[in-house]
Amino acid sequence: MTTVTKEPKRKNFLVRFFTMDTSGSKGGSDKLPLWRQLLIQLICLIITIEVMFPIMYIITLSFSSKSTRPSSLELFPKELSLVAYQQVLDRPTANPVTFLELLKNSALLSILVGLAALLVAVTAAYAFSRFKFKLRQVLMLMVFIPLLMPAVGLVTPLFLLMNSLQIKTCADGAMIIQPFTACDPGVAAKLLFNLRDSLIGVGIAMISTALPFAVWNLKGYLDTIPHELEEAAAIDGADPNQVFFQIVIPLAAPQLAVTFFLGFIGHWQEFVLPWLFLTQPKDYTLAMTLYNMTGQYANSIPWNRFAAMAIIVALPVAIVYILLQKQIVNGLTTGGVKG
Fold this sequence. Notes:
By secondary structure, the protein is mainly alpha-helical. The chain is built from 14 helices and three strands. It folds into two domains: about 35-65 and about 75-80, no CATH class; about 95-165 and about 195-335, MetI-like (MetI-like fold, Orthogonal Bundle), CATH 1.10.3720.10. Strands 2-1-3 form a three-stranded antiparallel beta sheet, with no helix packed on it.
């Protein structure tokens, strides 16, 4: 008489349990055994914890009524005080500038820079996509080269270029624009306007850094629009301007919106260019003010106000990204189906 041991059955059960398909797929290469799904879920859980840890910590600090840094790690607020938010909205820093002025400066830079870069980028991308001309490949390379360089490497030439344009009044009453005109030798001059130390100069510098990506992103999308639509419009009597504004622009509207909002996200949080260019508090942005809230030592930082300011600065970007996440992903992948 033979006896059947339970160990092989137990092993077979464990093997079947961890290799069972729970993906709901009917066949093909999409099947995932249970152990792989558990591993993927574990990795996603670790990533989620890592991402949410600093966010929860900052949110907890922002609802605290104490300005000192907590001595223990707190991920969930023990109190819901809005004192820090009220102080930030009333007077963010010791500089004589209100929160509304900071918000206006950041909004102007983000929106106007995004629109200006989009206007230039869509015309350049259309030219690269539709027209065949000499040095086309060379010009495309020159446009895309800044994408390969670190943004900090472009700061010095932009600083010198913007700083060279100044408006001054001479002692004899004459007004000059450097570097085109100059005062007479030995005549003192008073500075009226420096392009570098202005929101206009920062905006121009930000446009130059935003254009390469915008042109590259729009060019790939315009390549997917059939040429036959433009040819049909031309046969019906439409001139090139009508073809561009009434055919191409409406078809490219989703990608234009995606490109604008991607630029908005980057421009809203831009810190390096405004910090290096601007010196007057009235021109400061929200990102600059957030940095100004940090002192020389950690104990001198008003941690609750710093956290509240960080939440306020990040909130518009987070809302825009959450609302347009699907469109952003679709816009980035659509242009990759055709070279």
